[in-house]
Each structure stands twice: as C-alpha cells, then as structure tokens.
C-alpha cells in the first residue's frame, strides 16, 4: 500500500506529467482534425462529455498542486540545510557533492568566500555560504498560475452554462429564474479610450426578489444572480402593426438584430402567413441610430417565398402599399445578451496576472541575482562539500572548487598557525 | 529528368545514413545493413501500395507516416529539454534504450523504410517499372557504402547527441518529402494553424466575455483581424515547424557540464570542462544543419519547382435560352484530362469556371474558386489541382465533390455533344461564393 | 632516482651557417632546478626555446616528459606548450590593457577555459591578492614578474622555463622572486630550467651548466 502511494505520488508530482497530458490532447486534436474542420470546438465537446478526457485534464491542476507541495518541501529542506545546526542533509538537495578525507579547519575560508560576494555562517564543523535571491517565490507563483489556468479551463468546460436572451427597454431582465428587475434604460455613447469605441450601459431597476438597482456595462462584465451579463449584439424591438387588404390586422413586437446598418433580420408576423425582413438605413448625417434613437427601417414583406412589397418607414411612421398598411408606432432599444454562469473565468484571469508577475520576478532574479549555495560539513574526519546554483553555474562552480582546494591543501591550518 | 528529380531524395538518404553512423559509431555494419534493408522494404512497400490502392490513399499513408515522425520529433525535443534542465527528472532508462543496438537497428530500419517510400513515391504515381525501382535501390545501397567510407574519415570527436540525431534525420526526411508535392505537410499545416488560430481567438473572446467587435476600436480590431489571416497560418506553421529543432538546440546548449568537483588540480578540471564544452559544441552542428534543412524544406513546400497547368480562361457566352454550351471535341478536347478554364460575363457580373475529366472518367464542372478561400483560382499538376490561395492540394479523384477547399461544383448536363450549363445559376453561384469568402476575409465573426 | 624530464641527444640548432647550439647531450631529472649560464650568444636562449617547443632543432633528439618533440605536428607542439610548459621571460609580455587577474585568465583561456576564482587564488599565492584589478602599468617590476609567474604556473606545468626572469629587477625584487619560485616549486614539484647571467641567481638552482658558443663546457652541482 505504501509502495502504491509512493508510486502515485511520484507520478502525480512528476514534471513530465504536464507535457505528457498536453501531448495526449494534441494527439486527440490531430485525430479529430481528420474528421471535422471545427476541430477545437469538437475537442472541447469531447472533453466535456468524456470522463477519461475530463480526468486527464484534471490531472494537470492536481499535478500543479502536488508540485507546489513537493517544491515547497524541497525549498524548506534547503533552508534548513543553510542552518549550521542541521546535521543530516541529503545530497539530492544539491547539484554536486564531494567527500574528502581532511581534518576539520575552515581557516580563512569564510572571509575568502565573503570577498567573493557570499554571505556565510559557520561553526567549527559546518560552513554554509550563499548569495543571490531564490527563484522559489516566482516558481510558486508560476505553479499557482498553472493550477489556476488549467483548473479554470476544466471548470469552465464542464460547468459553464449560458443562455442568450433579448434585453429590451421596459421589460424585465430575462434571467434564467425569471423575475428580474425592469430594464429602465439602454444607452450607448462614444468612448474616448484606446480600446473601446463605444460604451454601453443597461440600467436595471430593483427587482421584487430583492435584487438592488444595477447598471451593467461592457467590460469587465458584472454578474446578476450569479450570471455574467455579457452584451453581444445590438438591435431594436419595434412594435409592428400590419393591416392586410383582407381586413386582417396584426400586431407584434419583433426583436431585430439589425445593428450596425447593413445587417438583416426577419420577423414572422404571429398568426399570419407573413414574414418581414428588416434592415436599417444608414443616416445621411453619419450619426449612430442606436445612440440617437432615430431609426428608419427598411423592410420587405413576404408571403411564403413571394415578395409582396418593400419600403421604409421611420419609428412613429407608416407605409401604405396596395392595401397593405404597415405602422411602427414604437421602438425600444434591444441588446442580445448572453447570461453566463462560469466559475472558471475568474481563475483564468487570475492565472494571466500571476504568470505576468512571476515572469517579472523570475527574469531579473535569474539574470542578475541567481541563487547560489554551498555547504561544507565535517563528520568522522571526512569533509562533505555540496554546491548548487540556480544560475551563473560556472562562476559559482569555480568558487566552490577553489574552496575545496583551499581546504584540501591545508592552507586553512597554515592561516591558523600564522 | 527523372534522374534529376531523384537527386534531392538520394542526397537526403545519404545525409540520413551519415547522421546515423555518427550517432552510433560502434554499430556501423548493423546500421548499414538495417538502413539498406529498410530502404528496400520501403521501396517495395510503396510499390505494392501504389499498385493495390488509389494514389490518393497511397500518398495519404506515406504522408501520415512522415507526419507521425514529425510528432515523434516533437516528443523527443520536449523530452530533451526536460531531461537537460530538470535534474530530478531522469530518463536514464530511456537513454540506455536509445543507445542500445536494438534501438539503433530499429531507427535505421524505420529511416530506411520512410526514405525509400518517399523517394519512389515521387514517380510511382505516374510511372515506375520494377527495373527503375531496382536501380534506385542499387543507387541507395552504393550511397550507403560511400557514406560509410566518408564517415570513417571524419574525426571521432564530431559526435551527435540522440536528440540532434533524430532532429537531423527528420529534417532530411522532410526535405526529401517536400520535393513531392503530394507529400507536402507544410501547406496543410499552415491551413490547420490558420483554422486553429481562428477558432482559438473566437473561443477565447467568447469564454473570456470580451466585448464584440462592434464596441472595439477599428485599429485594434485590425490587429485582432491579423489573427484570422493567412499570415498567421504561415507564421504559426513556421513556428511549429522549427520549434522542435530549436528545443533540441537549446537542450544541447544548456546541457549541464559534468561535475569536476572531485578533481583537485585546477588545470585538469578546466581541461575536462573544456573537453565537455567542445563536445557540446560539436553536438550543436547536426541540429543547426537540421534547422537549415527544415528551412529549405519549408521553402520548397511554399515554392515548389512544379509547373502548374493554368490556362487562360476562354470567354464564353450563353445562348437565348440562357445556356452555356461547351463542345466535348473541337479546338479543345474536354476529355484530355487537363483543366480547361472559361470566363462568363453578363450584366457587369462574371464567373470563372473550369471543366475537367477526372481519373474516374467523369466530366466535372466547377467554379474556379472554393467556399473557403479568396477566389485566386486553381492550377493542375501531378494528379492534383492546387488552390493558389492556401496551397491545398486536391486529388483529381475528389474534384467535383463539395467541401473543404474543393472547387465548388456546378450543376451541368453532360450530353454526347458536350456540356450544358445554366448561365444564371452559374453567375448566382459565383456571386454567393465570392461574397461569402469576402465576408470570411473580413474578420471571421 | 627520479626519471629524466628532459633528455636530449646530440641536440643542435643552426641558423644558416651559424651554429647557435652544437650537439648537446643533456639530462634533467624530474623536480630538479637547473641553471644555465653563459655569455651573450652562448646559446642559452636557443636551448630554452628548444626545450619550450618554441623552436625546432636542426638535429639530434629531444624528449620532454617522455614525448619526442621532433615527432609533434604544429598542433601537437602548441598542445605541448599549453599543457606541459610554463615560461617566464625577462620582458613580461603582459597585456597592458588587461588587469593582473585577466592576464592570468588569458593563459587559462588558451589552455582550456578561464576560471576567475582559480586565477585569483594563483595571484594570492604569489602575494598579489591585493593587486588583482591593477593593470601592469600600475605594478612594480617585481609585481609584474610575479604576475608572470602566476600566469606561468596556472596550468600546472611540469616544466617551468625562465629566460633571465630577474634581468630587469633590482636585488631585493630578485630575491623576492627567487624565494617565491623556490616555495612554489616545493609545493607543486615542477622542474625548473632557468637561464641567467647572474651567478647569485644561478646558485638558487640544484645544478648549473655553462654554455660557451653553443657548447656545454662545464657543469657544477650547487652545494646546499
């Protein structure tokens, strides 16, 4: 049992696990690519529905967590090794270890190492020296970021739910559970920033269920009852009144994704054989209809596949043709919005920030102040010298070798006797 | 001409054998035997494939094998960089395996099989008698002995690491396969990368709830739009192409030097370190050469030395009934197996199309454009048509079937006298196809 | 009895009609300090150049450390010079724009790889631990010669050749340099062959040979 646990720990904390799992997903992606052009979407779908793939993906954050534990243990062991009172230090903590049969005497070595830029600590039998800054904090941040990003992807893939609905002025916010506050106003204005050219705001009144008054913008998206409110497309919800030659009258409110001008959408006139295709006229003055609210609709009325007529009318206007009368007495702004419940998004954004921070810490430390350590310990007339370096290996190695030469030549004894 | 076409393949073969000999210097006779045997098997296997299966399937199998080897190189490159930079990750068992005679023999055999099959596939689809194959095998065999002699003249210090060895072998194999346009991997790779980039950006924006392009500044959307362009496919493919060799180079360059702490004399320590550094530098040579060879392979893939048959479109007109008629025989023989292009114009609109007799003996009429790419048109070469925009090769057997980068098929009637096409349907089909691909060009959302 | 590190048999060197070194049979046991004396033009420097692999003999045999120098190629001679021999000249030939430690590292570079810590230790051994970052122009004659000594011994040569190393030094500096060489030789056990025209310097050796017109005319053991 102990052996099994040990093997499991070795596998779960192995640095080879991440590239291995990524390799499996790559193979899967390549296999899917032979069958479909929408490879990435298919892969996401398979991962969502396949227990094996989900478990494989879950191995990565588990591996990240195990690596954090393993590396923290190693880091703490190294810190303990830098204490002169620590006796049993495993050689595996260091890059190289050598033993020499020399009698205990450090002599002038601490001062010599100090002159080379090392901080030292020693007793009669143990000397430790170090310089530079450990990359451990940056490494930890990196591992946390790796954990977050893959955990975020896993959570997002497996638990994300979304529904798209039309948010219309004057109507309740269409939440999954219903009973959302009234959408009081949808407004858009031009923005002056570097990234967004327009700024959208959706004002929602307090609901009967106790939700407070809210204003939703574009980015970062806010949440309503645990769902991100993610505006996608703009449009209008006109009231359409159609009178046909036979005396039939129809009224319907359409939801038209016809922004920007040039897009088309269609509405079935409920209870009638008629279908209307709408688009929006580009204002001659170059203004934005969604901002100004002044919209002129271009439309075509179809009965089955037959085009009956086409024309245009502004909001509040009407159009008459061959006994048909079309009026658009009112029109509200509409935002086609996705309501998304996804707990993985925040983790992924957190991961991005952590990757950036870890990189900003790691690079200067690795280039300018890499951590270098050495330890000399006498036990039973044998000197054990150990050394490790996270960077500047050759330079550190030469100082370490010279220190060993110094100890072995007995110069340390000469210094003492002078 | 045929002999000239074989030169890049035989040169690659010689290079592969030389690298193998350098990698396993104690096993030259075994490698010579295994590689020649592999070449013979590869040649014979390819011959049987092309005789028993369609050329499309045969090329697909060989191309798949070459692609699998590239994936293997990726795995080797990642393993190399991990093993050289992570002290607590040991591949000692793997390292012992790759040095063993069994691995050397299997590697040489596989390299021979692939080299042989790639080499002879350059002419088997169109011709290839057993005598020609025998001549090729004999030439390959002679080259092995020449390379053995050359290898014995090189200094022993010019060593190759296991990762550098496989990088060089794969690079040479790709150089060889890039000479055969139907085995080209780079162009399909860049198309797939372009598609992946498109999908990934789209998914990323949706997953991260980033506002739609309606709200983002035009200049910024222009930069984002670059991620949907053909350029990203090309550069992404180049990145994937070169990265394994770069990883191998980095792995070798940052290999940890041997510990010399046990040596008490400074001069001896430095001598050992200098020897290790020199060995490491020599080991960099094969991956550097592999980098150059990969570059040459990508260049040959992007600019193949193939002449495409691309006739100037002949203007045609419709009769009073709105029908375009093209006779089977006459000035142009529709049944000669070549691409015949035509141009129809009406009322300010135009459409380009072609007529082709496929290897199955059926005539097909298709737009000189596909449903995905810009309508740059098609050319014909070596049993395929090629889309000029994305460089995808479409086997002649599949022309007339819709989907992917295939030319959009047109409804027509084939009679004894010739081909009859509805002019209005042709114009409408062209307009809707070109409009669609223009929309795709604008940003993909 | 120690093995001979230098063995010559009928070693000669001629420059056209001029015979700088007439056939010379010489044996130098390992660890010995041999002084070579003679007037100007007696062939001392010629002998030193031949022993150091800086010149090729015109005839005879020459074995250093068991290696037949006549059979070595140019590359082989260069390797021999790098690994086996250290040379100290009267004119130091230090690179003027490099510091003391960099001058020593230069010798390491040509041998294998530079190692700053080792170069510093070597300079500390010769008593220049406080002058590591000074350029030759900032050092006294004696200090410059000590840098040369550090440079000569950094690659642990078996044979140290000196061509009048104290020729430009005052008496005090000369004694300091000789004392240092004696100390280093005792620690590292290399063989010294030193050319000098100074009788006092010659007596630091275990044995002195006298050359006259390229001929070995006399040999004396130094009384300890």
Tell me the total number of β-strands of chain C. 10
Strand percentage of chain B? 5-15%
pLDDT averaged over residues of chain C: 92
At the fourth level of CATH, the homologous superfamily of chain C is P-loop containing nucleotide triphosphate hydrolases
Account of the protein in words:
The complex is a heterotrimer of chains A (418), B (445) and C (224). Chain A is α+β, with helices and mostly antiparallel strands and 418 residues long. Chain A has helices at 2-12, 17-33, 39-49, 51-81, 109-115, 136-159, 289-292, 344-368, 393-409, 411-417, and strands at residues 96-100, 119-122, 126-131, 161-168, 183-190, 198-204, 214-216, 223-224, 227-243, 249-253, 265-268, 274-280, 296-303, 306-314, 318-321, 324-341, 372-379, 382-389. Chain A is elongated and about 115 Å long. Chain B folds into 3 domains: 2-190 and 230-302, no CATH class; 199-226, no CATH class; 314-443, Rieske Iron-sulfur Protein, CATH 2.102.10. A 5-stranded mixed sheet of chain B has the order 1-3-4-5-9. Chain B has a 3-stranded antiparallel sheet with strand order 2-11-10. Chain B is flat and about 100 Å long. In chain C, 34% of the residues lie in helices and 29% in strands. Chain C is built from 7 helices and 10 strands. The longest helix of chain C is centred in the C-terminal third of the chain and has 18 residues, at 171-188. The two termini of chain C are 18 Å apart. Classes of the chains: A alpha+beta (418), B alpha+beta (445), C alpha/beta (224). The interface between A and B is large, with 57 and 37 residues.
Describe the SSE topology:
The complex is a heterotrimer of chains A (418), B (445) and C (224).
Chain A: H1 2-12, H2 17-33, H3 39-49, H4 51-81, E1 96-100, H5 109-115, E2 119-122, E3 126-131, H6 136-159, E4 161-168, E5 183-190, E6 198-204, E7 214-216, E8 223-224, E9 227-243, E10 249-253, E11 265-268, E12 274-280, H7 289-292, E13 296-303, E14 306-314, E15 318-321, E16 324-341, H8 344-368, E17 372-379, E18 382-389, H9 393-409, H10 411-417
Chain B: H1 2-23, H2 28-52, H3 55-85, H4 92-99, H5 101-124, H6 130-153, H7 162-177, H8 186-207, H9 218-226, H10 230-253, H11 266-302, E1 314-316, E2 323-327, E3 340-346, E4 349-357, E5 363-370, E6 378-381, E7 384-387, E8 393-395, E9 407-409, E10 412-414, E11 418-422, H12 423-441
Parallel strand pairs in B: 1-3
Antiparallel strand pairs in B: 2-11, 3-4, 4-5, 5-9, 6-7, 7-8, 10-11
Helix pairs in contact in B: 1-5, 1-6, 1-7, 2-5, 2-6, 3-5, 3-7, 3-10, 5-7, 7-11, 8-10, 10-11
Chain C: E1 4-15, E2 18-29, E3 33-37, H1 44-51, E4 59-64, E5 67-68, H2 74-84, E6 85-89, H3 100-111, H4 116-125, H5 141-153, E7 159-163, H6 171-188, E8 191-195, H7 199-202, E9 207-212, E10 215-221
Parallel strand pairs in C: 3-8, 3-9, 6-7, 7-8
Antiparallel strand pairs in C: 1-2, 1-4, 4-5, 9-10
């Amino acid at each position: 049992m102990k052996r099994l646990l040990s093997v499991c720990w070795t596998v779960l904390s192995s640095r080879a696990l991440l590239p291995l799992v990524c390799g499996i997903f790559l193979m899967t992606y390549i296999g899917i690519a032979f069958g479909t052009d929408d490879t990435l979407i298919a892969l996401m779908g398979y991962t969502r529905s396949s227990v094996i793939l989900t478990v494989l993906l879950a191995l990565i954050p588990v591996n990240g967590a195990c690596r954090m534990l393993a590396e923290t243990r190693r880091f703490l062991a190294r810190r303990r090794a830098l204490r002169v009172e620590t006796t049993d230090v495993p050689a595996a903590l260091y890059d190289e270890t050598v033993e020499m049969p020399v009698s205990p005497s450090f002599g002038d070595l601490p001062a010599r190492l100090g002159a080379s830029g090392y901080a030292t600590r020693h007793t009669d039998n143990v000397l430790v020296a170090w310089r530079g800054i450990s990359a451990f904090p940056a490494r930890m941040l990196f591992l946390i970021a790796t954990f977050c990003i893959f955990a975020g992807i896993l959570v997002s893939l497996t638990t994300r739910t979304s529904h798209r609905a039309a948010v219309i002025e004057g109507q309740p916010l269409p939440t999954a559970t219903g009973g959302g506050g009234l959408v009081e106003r949808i407004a858009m204005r031009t923005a002056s920033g570097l990234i967004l050219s327009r700024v959208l705001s959706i004002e929602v009144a307090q609901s009967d269920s106790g939700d407070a008054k809210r204003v939703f913008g574009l980015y970062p998206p806010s949440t309503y009852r645990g769902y991100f409110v993610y505006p996608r497309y703009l449009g209008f919800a006109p009231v359409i009144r159609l009178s046909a030659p036979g005396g039939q009258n129809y009224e319907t409110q359409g939801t038209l994704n016809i922004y920007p001008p040039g897009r088309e959408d269609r509405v079935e006139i409920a209870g009638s054989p008629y279908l209307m295709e709408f688009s929006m006229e580009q204002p001659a003055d170059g203004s934005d209809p969604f901002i100004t609210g002044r919209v002129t609709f271009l439309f075509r009325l179809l009965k089955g596949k037959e085009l009956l007529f086409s024309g245009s009318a502004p909001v509040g206007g009407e159009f008459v043709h061959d006994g048909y009368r079309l009026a658009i007495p009112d029109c509200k702004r509409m935002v086609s919005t996705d309501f998304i419940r996804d707990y993985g998004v925040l983790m992924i954004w957190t991961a991005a920030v952590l990757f950036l921070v870890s990189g900003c810490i790691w690079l200067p430390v690795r280039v300018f102040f890499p951590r270098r350590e050495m330890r000399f310990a006498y036990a039973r007339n044998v000197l054990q010298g150990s050394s490790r370096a996270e960077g500047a290996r050759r330079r550190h190695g030469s100082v370490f070798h010279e220190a060993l030469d110094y100890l072995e030549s007995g110069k340390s004894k000469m210094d003492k006797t002078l | 001409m045929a002999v000239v076409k074989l030169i890049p393949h035989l040169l690659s073969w010689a290079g592969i054998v030389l690298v193998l000999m350098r990698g396993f210097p104690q096993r030259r006779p075994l490698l010579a035997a295994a590689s020649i045997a592999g070449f013979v098997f590869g040649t014979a296997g390819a011959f049987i494939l092309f005789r028993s299966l369609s050329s499309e399937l045969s090329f697909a199998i060989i191309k798949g094998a070459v692609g699998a080897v590239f994936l293997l190189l990726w795995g080797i490159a990642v393993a190399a960089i991990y093993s050289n930079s992570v002290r607590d990750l040991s591949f000692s068992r793997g390292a012992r395996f790759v040095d063993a005679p069994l691995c050397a023999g299997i590697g040489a055999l596989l390299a021979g099989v692939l080299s042989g099959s790639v080499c002879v596939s350059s002419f088997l689809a169109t011709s290839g008698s057993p005598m020609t194959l025998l001549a090729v095998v004999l030439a390959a065999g002679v080259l092995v002995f020449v390379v053995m002699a050359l290898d014995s003249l090189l200094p022993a210090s010019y060593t190759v690491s296991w990762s550098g060895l496989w990088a060089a072998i794969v690079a040479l194999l790709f150089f060889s396969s890039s000479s055969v346009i139907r085995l080209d991997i780079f162009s399909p790779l860049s198309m797939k990368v372009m598609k992946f980039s498109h999908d990934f950006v789209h998914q990323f924006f949706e997953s991260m709830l980033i506002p739609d392009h309606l709200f983002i500044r035009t200049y910024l959307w222009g930069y984002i739009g670059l991620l949907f362009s053909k350029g990203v496919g090309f550069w992404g493919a180049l990145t994937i192409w070169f990265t394994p060799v770069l990883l191998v180079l980095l792995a070798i360059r940052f290999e940890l030097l041997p510990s010399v702490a046990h040596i008490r004399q400074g001069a001896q320590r430095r001598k050992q370190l200098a020897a290790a550094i020199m060995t490491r530098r020599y080991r960099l040579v094969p991956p550097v050469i592999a980098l150059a060879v990969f570059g040459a392979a990508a260049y040959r893939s992007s600019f193949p030395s193939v002449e495409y048959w691309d006739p100037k479109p002949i203007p045609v007109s419709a009769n009073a009934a709105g029908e375009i008629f093209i006779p089977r025989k006459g000035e142009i023989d529709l049944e000669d197996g070549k691409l015949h292009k035509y141009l129809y114009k009406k009322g300010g609109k135009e459409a380009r199309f072609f007529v082709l007799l496929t290897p199955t003996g059926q005539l097909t009429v298709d737009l000189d454009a596909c449903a995905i790419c810009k309508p740059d048109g098609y050319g014909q070469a070596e049993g395929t048509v090629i889309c000029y925009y994305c460089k995808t090769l479409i086997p002649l057997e599949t022309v007339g079937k819709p989907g992917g980068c295939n030319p959009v098929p047109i409804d027509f009637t084939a009679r004894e006298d010739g081909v009859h096409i509805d002019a209005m349907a042709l114009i409408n089909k062209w307009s809707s196809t070109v409009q669609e691909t223009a929309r795709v060009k604008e940003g993909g959302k | 009895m120690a093995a001979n590190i230098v063995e010559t048999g009928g070693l000669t060197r001629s420059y056209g009609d001029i015979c700088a070194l007439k056939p010379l049979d010489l044996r130098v046991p390992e660890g010995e300090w041999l002084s070579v004396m003679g007037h100007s033009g007696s062939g001392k420097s010629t002998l030193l150049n031949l022993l150091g692999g800086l010149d090729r003999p015109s005839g005879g045999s020459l074995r250093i450390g068991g290696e037949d120098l006549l059979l070595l190629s140019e590359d082989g001679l260069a390797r021999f010079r790098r690994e086996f021999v250290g040379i100290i000249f009267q004119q130091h030939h230090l690179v003027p724009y490099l510091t003391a430690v960099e001058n020593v590292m230069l010798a390491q570079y040509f041998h294998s790889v530079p190692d700053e810590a080792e170069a510093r230790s070597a300079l500390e051994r010769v008593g220049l631990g406080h002058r590591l970052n000074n350029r030759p122009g900032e050092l006294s004659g004696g200090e410059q010669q000590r840098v040369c000594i550090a440079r000569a011994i950094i690659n642990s040569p078996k044979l140290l050749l000196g061509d009048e190393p104290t020729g430009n030094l005052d008496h005090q500096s000369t004694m300091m340099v000789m004392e240092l060489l004696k100390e280093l030789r005792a620690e590292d056990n290399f063989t010294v062959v030193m050319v000098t025209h100074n009788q006092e310097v010659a007596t630091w050796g275990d044995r002195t040979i006298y050359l006259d017109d390229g001929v070995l005319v006399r040999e004396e053991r130094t009384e300890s």
